[in-house]
Every structure is written in structure tokens, then in C-alpha cells.
Amino acid sequence: MGGQIARIVAGEEPLDLGPPPGARPGVHPLLERVVAHLTATMARLFVRGDPTESLALARLACGVPDDTPHADLFAVLRELFAAYEAALAPPAPGRLFPAANRLLVAAAIFAATPVAPLAKPAAY
Questions:
Q1: pTM for the complete prediction?
Q2: DSSP output for 96-108
């Protein structure tokens, strides 16, 4: 992009880089529900509010039949929610948020990018 801008600023014709790459594929609606509820959960956590309801809705959104697209991902998300609840403790001294929050961030990222390879860690 820098080269293209330099050409335009210099009064030269821009390079023909071909057609635009196209639209990003959408996220499955059931996964989008998880992302939306996890976003609300994180927002509540950032303002030190009660995330119970939005987290429960995110977990509920993962209760899908085994033949649902991305069923393996929903199973991993359920495991992350369980690991979050098991690891939840007050933040370490000098930290604003509990370390367990990273599991919710990971769950949101996984849910929002279902086409990315999913490597299940041995333990959370």
C-alpha cells in the first residue's frame, strides 16, 4: 500500500492490483450468538459488573445437537467455559482482571474464526 500511495503522490498512475479480494465469509448464526454474548460478558467484566447472565447465554448458545455445523468447536467452547469457572479466582496482586478471563477471550476468538485450525490444548 505504501508503494501505491507513493505512486499517486508522485502523480503516477496506480498499479493495477486486480479485483478486490471479496467479502469475508460470514460466521454461522449460532456461533455469532456465542460471540455476541461473550462480547457482552467481557464488557460487563471490564466495568466490574455482573457477567452471570451474558455468560449463561453464551454457554446456552453452545448447547447444539451433534450434527450442527462446527459441533466440534461448540464442544471446545463448552470446555473453555467450564475451565473458566473452575479457574476463576480474584486477580493476582497488581492485576486488574483474573487470569481466567483469558479463557473467555480465547472462546470469543475461536467462535468468531471457525475456519481457523482448532488445536485443542492438553489442559487449560
A1: 0.74
A2: SS-TTHHHHHHHH
Residue 92 placed within a domain: yes
Take residue 33 and report the three cell numbers written for it. 450468538
Burial of 47 (0-12, 13-18, 19+ CB in 10 A): exposed
> Which pLDDT value is given to residue 71?
93
At a CB cut-off of 8 Å and minimum separation 6, what does 55 contact?
37, 38, 41, 81, 104
Distance between CA atoms of residues 118 and 99, nearest Å:
22
Do 92 and 100 touch, CB atoms closer than 8 A?
no
| 79 grid coordinates | 470446555
Domain residue limits at 52: 23-112
Residues in Cβ contact with 100 at an 8 Å cutoff, skipping those fewer than 6 apart? 83, 84, 87, 88, 89
